[in-house]
Every structure is written in structure tokens, then in C-alpha cells.
Amino acid sequence: MGSKVLNVKFTNGKEMPMVGLGTYARQADPGQFRQAVEWGIEAGYRHIDTASCYKNEEEVGEGINNKINDGLVTRDQLFVTTKVWNDCHAEEQVVPALKESLARLKLDYVDLYLVHWPFSANGKGEDLGIDYLETWKGMEQVVKLGLAKSIGVSNFNEEQLERLLNNSTIKPVVNQFEINPTLTQHKLVDFCKKHSVVPVAYTPLGLISEARPEFAGKDAIKTDPKFGALAEKYGKTRAQIALRYLVQRGIPVIPKSFTKSRIAENLNLFDFELSDSEMALVDSFNIDHRCVPATPFKALKNYPF
Ligand SMILES: NC(=O)c1ccc[n+]([C@@H]2O[C@H](COP(=O)([O-])OP(=O)(O)OC[C@H]3O[C@@H](n4cnc5c(N)ncnc54)[C@H](OP(=O)(O)O)[C@@H]3O)[C@@H](O)[C@H]2O)c1
């Protein structure tokens, strides 16, 4: 197993492990989320990412609580994130939405609560037209009530993040968005860093992992010999090179896996370092390709992409 996972520090003094376990899956067998979380904690993950819309908070919470009850970890050694969904964006809906998430997770607080998307929409995908600045007032309440230690956003573009930073009392500590070697996002990452907002990479494996037919022909990174040689040089996989590249840019990553060996593999990133030219090589695979374009939401006013 690689050396210890590093932490990143927020402006509010709280710390978050640089590698977390993602838990989104389109399909899962009963018990699969719980099992992944248990394997994750056993492998050394101390950071778990979920969301109310993943419909897995019960199982994720079960996995967490099982490992706490086993005595393997204490609650304060774990960093748990969940997110408020698009249909709970009115100011007065945010606190109840988090209380419901906490009841499903069987936890007293989360470490980080995120606004999942900058737009609001009902279950039919119709625009509710609620300004995220209003949602944010509810987010500030959850901190005051001790239900979340920190708050942040997800999928906010530069303009939306700037407007929020200029119109908030408690500042977002995180913006979670898609970043990987084929969507390197230098501009938004630099903007976040300049404003002390930690950019967190979702879908960090990008086209290395996905085999969706719509991406056929774009995933040269899976077979490119130069990328393969880089992985071989360090005795790592292509996935580990992609994750190391992000971590080395100062970007925390939250890879998801249901596979025990990959869960361990994705954490094992801290016993090697890419040189400047190797970082540039990984960077050269950028094609600004989004695995998560959220196209069903494209017509909404605050669609960010
Ligand atoms: N805020 C948002 O809007 C948002 C959007 C998307 C994702 N997220 C979060 O980010 C997390 C990660 O994103 P993601 O799940 O979309 O993508 P990802 O973590 O980049 O990729 C997951 C896929 O890669 C496979 N995989 C995992 N480790 C691998 C390895 N070492 N080698 C090869 N394949 C590997 C997994 O397969 P197996 O499971 O079969 O091993 C799974 O199919 C999510 O789970 C979720 O928590 C947030």
C-alpha cells in the first residue's frame, strides 16, 4: 500500500483527505454501496462522497456506521460529503433536506454539504427559477445549526462562483466539478484557487474508465503508448497516473469503484511523483470532453456549461 493520503486545508481551518470514495452508480445490486464503503474504509479511505440524488445514503451510512461500530474508525476521523438536490433550492427547504439526508445516513452531521447544481428544477426537469443565492442562505443556516461543518458548491462556472463569492457571508470552501486528463479545466481550477475555493475533481478517471458508446473514438488515452509507458515506468495503472496528475495539481479526487482491488488501487498514489514533462504529457490529452454534460438540464436558466 502506498504512503499516507494527504489532506487539503480549507479557509475555515477544516481539513479534507485528497482522495475520497465516490459512490454514484446508475445501477447497483442491493448491498453494493455498503460493501464499497466498507472496503474503502478498510483500505484507508477517510473521505466518502454521496448525494441525496444518488439514492444510496442509507447504504453509504450503513457502511460508515458498520466500520465505526467495528472500532476501525471514529466519526471524527471520517470526512463525509452529501449534496442538496435541485428540487430543494428554496431557502427554507435546505435545512430539512439535509436533516433527511442525515436521517438516511444515520449521522449527526456531515463534514461538507454541497449545492449539487446551480439550477433549480422539479422532478419533471422544469425550471423552478430559484436563484442559487437564495439556496445559499439556507446553506449558511446548516453551518449555524451544526448540521454541516463546511459548505460548498458543485458544477458552478466561473461567473456563478464569482457572484456567489461576492454575495455570501459564509464562503463556499469547495467547487466540485468534472476534471480529468481529457477535461483539464485549467481556467476554472485557477479561478477557484485564486479565490481559496478548493476544486474537487469528480469523474476523475474520465475516458480512462468509461466505455460509453458515445465516446468511442475519443478515448485514445486508454491505449496511447506514451501514456502506457508512463504508467509502466512507475509500476502504476493508467487510472493511477490520471489520479496522481490531479492530486499533484492540488486537486482532490473522488474516484468511484465497486471493485475491491480498484478501490485500494485508487488510493495508492502517494509513493511516486510525476516530473514537469510527465505532467505536461498527461495534460496534452485534453480534448475538453465532458463525460457529464447534464444535457437534460440544458434549457435551464442557470445551466453552467
Ligand atoms: N457533483 C456532481 O455533479 C458529480 C457528477 C458525477 C460524479 N460525481 C461524484 O464523483 C464520483 C466519481 O465520478 P464517476 O463515478 O462519474 O467516475 P470515475 O470515478 O471517474 O469512474 C468510475 C468508473 O471507473 C471504473 N474504475 C474505478 N477505478 C478504476 C481503475 N482503477 N481502473 C479502471 N477503471 C476504474 C469504475 O468501475 P467499477 O466500479 O466497476 O470498478 C467505474 O465504472 C461519483 O461516484 C460521485 O461521487 C459528482
UniProtKB/TrEMBL annotation:
Active site: Y54 (proton donor)
Keywords: NADP, Oxidoreductase
Residues with site note (Lowers pKa of active site Tyr): K83
Domain NADP-dependent oxidoreductase per the UniProt entry, residue ranges: 26-286
Origin: domain of life: Eukaryota
One GO molecular-function entry: oxidoreductase activity
UniProt xrefs under Pfam families: Aldo_ket_red (PF00248)
Residue numbers binding substrate: H116
Family of this protein: Belongs to the aldo/keto reductase family.
Name of the protein in question: Aldehyde reductase 3
Native source organism of the sequence: Helicoverpa armigera
